[in-house]
Amino acid sequence: MAIMDSIKARAKADKKTIILPESMDNRTFKAAEAALKEGIANIIIIGTPEQIAANKGDCDITGATVIDPNTYEKTQQYEDLFVELRASKGMTHEEARKIMLSDYAYYGCLMIKSGDADGMVSGACHSTANTLRPCLQLIKTKPGTKLVSAFFLMDVPNCEYGEDGVFVFADCGLEQNPDPEKLAAIALSSAESFKLLVGKEPRVAMLSHSSKGSAKHDDVTKVVEATKIAKELAPELALDGELQLDAAIVPSVGASKAPDSPVAGKANVLVFPDLDAGNIGYKLVQRLAKAEAYGPMCQGIAAPVNDLSRGCFWEDILGVIAITAVQAQNK
Predict the structure, then answer these.
(1) What is the span of the domain harbouring residue 237?
(2) Lower CB density within 10 Å: C or N end of the chain?
(3) Same domain, 86 and 165
(4) In a shared domain, residues 69 and 191
(5) Would you give the DSSP letter of residue 301?
(6) Separation of alpha carbons 119 and 131, rounded Å
(7) Is the pLDDT of residue 30 over 80?
(8) pLDDT given for residue 234 in this prediction
(9) What are the helix (H) ranges across the chain?
């Protein structure tokens, strides 16, 4: 069974309520139609009647809950909560209402914070910053998590590497240049995300242009230090570094370059040293290997709010809805 088929089956088994705030984009409605038809999640779409009419097209969203923030009965309740949560920043009722009615990601996060939904998927027509800012301000990080990071769930066709072609790549969407402590935290969160979504034991490779001291540079030292920190924090986890990409995933190369490593040659979680490497890496695999790339998925938030690439297709949104639902099951 393909990994997305497995995730969808899990989502159907315990349906969660997922918010789609981007009613200004037809892809939202195509994904909502498919999610409802397949029974993956209960869907809330935020938008005015004019926005719905202008962008829905011929999509059948029967069964979705459509909420107009201007008239919804709980809007005042959400406004009060917004002011309460941001009181230390001087939030006023006038400003709160203005933000809520113009930026539906804030409205969606307030619904989640109030317990009226389980997760949200956004980013098809908004930047990552605009998607994540509301949830970091309102929902906050998960207890015990030091930072929020982003990963892609990659499904590479006809691939014998990783977990039958399935990988988690991180961080490919958020942390620009993590220091060793942050890189270690990304590794641990990514291992947890892999186990949750794939259902198999993670094997984490801390990637570099060096394998086990083959090169000397401050960038390599950062990965070495991050590996040490991660091992101290989670000694039971199969994690190793620093490893070049081929040493991490190709058994023969791993055996040659890192013969004593518990991860080399069989890694299924790839932790990149910085955002440049991670973003370039996932896009190379997506385009050249025709891989399915779901994300950037967020990890470390107290409730699942996930981002999308602005170049995504509606099928990508559908996949992220399913992943968000499974994350919500584990909240």
Answers:
(1) 149-288
(2) N
(3) no
(4) no
(5) B
(6) 13
(7) yes
(8) 94
(9) 3-13, 26-38, 49-55, 75-85, 93-102, 104-113, 128-138, 180-198, 218-233, 245-249, 251-257, 275-288, 314-329
